[in-house]
Write a structure and sequence with these properties.
Its EC number is 2.7.13.3. One of its GO terms (biological process) is osmosensory signaling via phosphorelay pathway. The protein is an alpha+beta fold. The chain is elongated, with a radius of gyration of 39 Å. It is built from 13 helices and seven strands.
């Protein structure tokens, strides 16, 4: 997977490979041991990835269930608050109606009183039911206390009304002025205040627990994603190491078989087959890494759906959004959890793009090169048209300085090379000046030399070689990218028998110089000879 370009055998490599094959009679177990160890590492990493996925799945289920229970408890506490306040409101309404009637004698003022007496039993029963539904984490005072206070209050109100109706209005007003009614209302308010304080504490605890669950889920999933990324890098390093071990084995065995030069041609196809198998290994490992990633994406979608349903329930529940506790619940469901899920989805999307790029590199060596005569001006204008939208967005220009060398090469590879270089230049323009890209070319011996010059922000001297390494980038990481584009360019250039370098002072622009053979056909014939 992390190869800069697929390995292609030179004449010396072919000779060494032939001798390696013949000498397998002397060293029959060496490559088998290497392959078994390589396979064992791959199986181990696959098992670790599966275990991580299972952990994330189980953790998501457990934290989801826990959050649902905690949310339901917070809602039950809010319902208890509303029921207690409804009972208290009935007492207040009854007292208001009684006093209005005593002052005016108008029976219309008695409506709040009569409505309160009618609705009070149901409200009290609803309060009892809500108290019974609360968990054992909070102990609500016996609802019978509130019922007793309310009953005595209604009796006091009824007594004043009865005195007034019999003509003893002085006695009714005397009873109103006494401390009996005030004392009963104070008792009722004190009881409701105690209930509200207890349920507020319960809601705060549940909300904090929900936030803690969301944080733990975020950490768990993030660790899983990071671990899978680490496993991906380890897989890349493992394949690189495995490829190097194969090369070492070829060189060591070749040194003991100098006399077998005549068998070079017969063994070339075998070496190419080994190279193709290495590339297949890279493809298989990258492909297998997608399985746990797809599962993570699926579970993330499930969590998003569950969160959306719960959010809909909260919004339709008619809860008072001005209540700080209810507002906190809404914030946890509408902001905190979606933010965590968004982070997971962003990470998995980046991982998916990374695997796709690795798969692209692994397929590189299997695409045959097709040499043809190429008019470079036409090819480069097509490349510029491909990135024109990015140039237009940045107010930049790109031009081709003619004439350019005409070469015989693979058009598809050249198109990818120059499109990547143009896109890279357009991505890193300096906003302090209008962007400009200039492409030049000349012939030097059997090679054509092309330069792609831009006036962007440049590349630091210490990064001139580093930028061509896989997963490496230069400067501020304020543009999207995985650090694969330039590594892919170098792989393509070297596959065409050329090389690429960079010149930049790190501030006023960058020049990429490509050296390509004018005619690719002799090299291909030499490689297949």
């Amino acid at each position: 997977m992390p190869m800069c370009a697929p390995w292609r055998p030179s004449s010396k490599n072919i000779a060494q490979g032939a001798r390696r094959r013949v000498s397998q009679a002397n060293e029959p177990g060496l490559l088998k041991f290497v392959d078994r160890r390589f396979l064992g590492y791959n199986v181990l990493m696959a098992l670790v990835a599966a275990a991580i996925l299972l952990t994330i799945a189980v953790g998501s289920f457990v934290f989801g269930e826990r959050t649902q229970e905690q949310s339901a408890e917070a809602l039950r506490a809010a319902a208890t608050d509303r029921a207690a306040l409804a009972v208290l409101a009935s007492l207040v309404d009854a007292e208001t109606g009684q006093r209005g009637w005593l002052l005016t004698g108008d029976d219309d003022y008695l409506k709040p009183y009569t409505d309160a007496r009618t609705h009070f039993p149901g409200q009290l029963e609803q309060f009892r039911l809500q108290v019974e539904r609360l968990s054992n984490d909070v102990t609500i005072p016996d609802p019978a206390r509130l019922e007793d206070v309310a009953r005595r209050k209604f009796d006091e109100l009824a007594q004043t009304l009865a005195l007034a109706r019999t003509g003893d209005r002085d006695g009714a007003f005397a009873l109103v002025r006494s401390d009996v009614g005030i004392t009963l209302m104070d008792e009722a308010r004190a009881y409701v205040a105690q209930v509200l304080a207890l349920t507020d504490g319960l809601r705060l605890r549940r909300i904090e627990q929900m936030r803690a669950s969301a944080r733990l889920l975020t950490v768990l999933t993030s660790l899983g994603v990071v671990t899978i990324l680490v496993l991906s890098v380890l897989a890349i390093l493992l394949i690189t190491h495995h490829t190097r071990e194969l090369e070492v084995a070829r060189r060591d065995l070749a040194r003991s078989n100098e006399a077998l030069e005549h068998r070079v041609r017969d063994r070339t196809r075998e070496l190419l087959g080994v190279n193709a198998e290495v590339q297949r290994y890279a493809y298989i490992v990258s492909h297998d890494l997608r399985a746990p990633l797809v599962n993570i994406m699926g579970f993330t979608s499930e969590l998003e759906t569950a969160t959306s349903r719960f959010s809909t329930f909260l919004h339709r529940g008619g809860f008072d959004r001005t209540d700080p506790i209810v507002a906190d619940v809404h914030e946890a469901v509408d902001v905190d959890i979606p933010e965590a899920l968004g982070f997971i989805r962003t990470s998995t999307t980046r991982m998916d793009a990374l695997i796709n790029e690795i798969l692209k590199l692994s397929r590189l060596g299997r695409v045959p090169l097709v040499p043809e005569a190429i008019v470079m001006e036409t090819l480069l204008r097509d490349c510029i048209a491909t990135v024109q939208h990015r140039l237009d967005a940045g107010g930049a220009t790109a031009m081709v300085i003619s004439p350019l060398p005409r070469i015989v090469s693979d058009a598809n590879s050249l198109n990818q090379i120059f499109t990547n270089l143009l896109d890279n230049a357009a991505k890193y323009f300096d906003p302090a000046r209008p962007g400009r890209i200039v492409i030049r070319g000349r012939t030097e011996g059997a090679n054509a030399i092309f330069s792609v010059e831009d006036n962007g922000r440049g590349i630091a001297a210490g990064d001139h070689e580093r930028i061509f390494e896989l997963f490496r980038r230069s400067g501020a990481q304020d543009r999207p990218g995985e650090g694969i584009g330039l590594a892919h360019v170098r792989s393509l250039v070297r596959r065409l028998g050329g090389d690429i370098g960079v010149v930049s002072d790190g501030s006023t622009g960058t020049i990429f110089r490509l050296i390509l053979p004018i005619d690719l056909r002799p090299r291909l014939k030499k490689d297949t000879a």
